[in-house]
Amino acid sequence: MSSGNVEIVRATYEAFNHEGRERMLEFLHPEIEWDESDLPARRPGIYHGHDGIVTLLEENAALWENICIAIDDIAEGRDDRVIAFIRAKGRGRNTGVDVELASAQVWTIRDGMAVHVRLYLDREEALHAAGVKV
């Protein structure tokens, strides 16, 4: 795997933070699977394709204001995987309270696009899924 895959993941977060969902979708395969089934809040689930990503973003926007993703660490995993330790920051739309959620995402990149992303709340589980020895 090349470090180009890490840069694709970075660019996707940057697009999310600064350029809008249309630009973000350019880095995601049209049939992407985005798995947030372990998430304890919102509506955990698996989102499919660009339509699923738009639904996910709309669900998040209904709950959060000023959402931003900060990358704490990012590294290559085994095969076509990238692991990113991130913090989603924003303000609760209904509460006005600042919110921060630390998690890890394991991305699978093929032919320059993300084909699968899975969110993990457990660091060790994410490292294992990315094929990184602990």
Q: What is this entry, summarized?
A:
The chain is an alpha+beta fold.
Question: Your description of this structure?
Answer:
The chain has 134 residues and is an alpha+beta fold. It is built from four helices and six strands, in the order H-H-E-E-H-E-E-E-E-H. A six-stranded mixed β-sheet has the order 2-1-6-5-4-3, sandwiched between helices. The chain is globular and about 40 Å long.
Largest sheet: 6 strands, mixed
Overall number of strands:
6
Structural domain tally? 1
Kindly provide the radius of gyration, computed on alpha-carbon positions and rounded to a whole number of angstroms. 14 Å
Structural class: alpha+beta
Low-confidence stretches: none
Please bin the fraction of helical residues.
25-40%
Oligomeric composition of the shown chains: single chain
* Rounded average pLDDT: 92
Shape: globular
Which architecture per CATH? Roll
- Within the CATH hierarchy, at the fold level, what is the topology? Nuclear Transport Factor 2, Chain: A
Q: What is the top-level CATH class?
A: Alpha Beta
Major β-sheet strand ordering: 2-1-6-5-4-3
What string, H for helix and E for strand, traces the elements in order? HHEEHEEEEH
Intertermini distance: 19 Å
Total number of helices: 4
What proportion strand? 35-45%
List the helices and strands and how they pair.
Elements: H1 4-19, H2 21-25, E1 28-35, E2 46-48, H3 49-63, E3 64-76, E4 81-92, E5 98-110, E6 113-120, H4 123-130
Parallel strand pairs: 1-6
Antiparallel strand pairs: 1-2, 3-4, 4-5, 5-6
